[in-house]
Specification:
globular; 12 strands; about 400 residues
Length: about 400
């Protein structure tokens, strides 16, 4: 007999299948294209916070040095001159003497978000009006700057952002991390843009003009927020300007050394999403159809109806994965497909755990996140810093 719990779980599993069918259709309609860029091709300053060298840093940064764009500078920000990323920047400076590359030592952070603190220093050293922010684990093609600069030719656009695809660099943890980006973040983001105007940004790329950044208080206004990209998009939207999604996919090179680091990373992401959009995040639990179907098997037993529901969700996810990876231009092997059930269950568990606390691990530091999305360092973890205190930056 069907109990109330069984009926609810069956309904959720059915809704999950419908969601994924809609999501895959939305991804299939999403178009990326090369952009010629604005006619006058205004000069651009790329702000690039870097920390340590994960073995992929050189190739990631080099891709930004090979842009088919007439005039731009790149400011690399490090917190210490002893950072392992500094030799990589120095190597690029020697290899590209014709480019305006500089390494800026930013010193102590001005807030809890260390990356934003670095961006605050870099933005004040920027030579050009148009700013492009891109994380150090991103890799791009030669037409990247043209693609993100083009929408800013429209004065109603205040911020340009990009979606990003995950590219694994060997190992199960790295593959699972890339799967999370490709099979959860991208479909969810595209579905969101179909349901409502975009009001938030994605950290893969943030492009705006200096005047727009100054109008929201600069990066200093974001220095204590966990989801700085999301808050930046909201602040700019509230000023009546649009957040534009550029027709370009950045490649996020995923380097995860272990399952433990993957879990820590994704739990931080989950608590970020839960903080900035609590109701949509709670509703997103329905997207984990395989995990819900497994829960249904545990509750109702392996009946024909229950097993059919589980099989349908596995079929929808695995079949949709083929379409998704083709659309993203990514290779797909059997090993990745076999990981789909585990990936779904892991995401479901981490989503549930995100409701059980407000602590996040970021690097070697631990923080608590309050209801407004602001970070507060936990005493005794990581390095001790003096908020709002900056050492004098140097430029080499």
């Amino acid at each position: 007999m069907l109990t109330d719990v069984t009926i609810v779980l069956l309904g959720l599993v059915f809704c999950s299948s419908l969601y994924w069918l809609f999501a895959y259709r939305s991804v299939a309609r999403f178009r990326t294209r090369s952009a010629a860029g604005p006619t006058d091709a205004p000069p651009i300053t790329i702000l690039k916070p870097v920390l340590n060298d994960d073995g992929q840093l050189y190739l990631n940064l080099r891709s930004f040095c090979e842009q088919d764009y007439p005039r731009y500078e790149i400011l690399f920000g490090v917190r210490s001159p002893d950072d392992p990323a500094v030799p990589v920047v120095e190597r690029l400076t020697r290899e590209f003497p014709q480019l305006d590359l500089a390494c800026v030592v930013t010193g102590a952070p001005i807030g809890s978000n260390r990356k934003v603190s670095t961006l605050d220093v870099l933005s004040r050293r920027a030579r050009y009006d148009m700013l492009v922010v891109a994380d150090a684990d991103m890799r791009v093609t030669r037409d990247y700057l043209r693609a993100v600069a083009a929408p800013l030719a429209d004065p109603s656009v205040g911020l340009v952002t990009c979606l990003y695809r995950g590219v694994a660099v060997g190992g199960v943890a790295s593959t699972l991390g890339a799967m999370f980006i490709n099979e959860w973040l991208i479909p969810g983001a595209i579905v969101g843009t179909r349901l409502a105007p975009l009001r938030n940004a994605f950290g893969a790329t943030l492009a705006c003009r200096q005047a727009v950044l100054a109008a929201i208080g600069g990066f200093a206004a974001l220095a204590d927020y966990l989801a700085d990209d999301y808050v930046m998009g909201e602040m700019i939207s509230r000023r009546g300007l649009r957040v534009e999604l550029a027709p370009y996919l950045v490649s996020n090179i995923v380097v995860e050394r272990s399952l433990r680091s993957l879990v820590s990373h994704e739990l931080r992401w989950a608590r970020t999403f839960r903080t900035v959009r609590p109701l949509p995040f709670a509703a997103s639990m329905v997207t984990h159809g395989i995990a819900l179907a497994c829960l249904l098997v545990a509750v109702a037993g392996p009946t024909r109806v229950v097993l059919a529901a589980l099989a349908a969700n596995v079929l929808v996810r695995c079949g949709g994965q083929v379409l998704l990876y083709r659309r993203l231009g990514l290779p797909l092997g059997w090993s990745t497909t076999l990981l789909v059930p585990f990936r779904d269950v892991l995401s479901f568990v981490l989503s549930g755990l995100s409701f059980l606390g407000r602590h996040v691990q970021w690097g070697n530091e631990c923080f608590t996140v309050d209801a407004d999305g602001k970070l507060h360092p936990v005493l005794g973890t990581g390095t001790t810093t003096s908020p709002r205190a900056l050492s004098r930056p140097t430029r080499s």
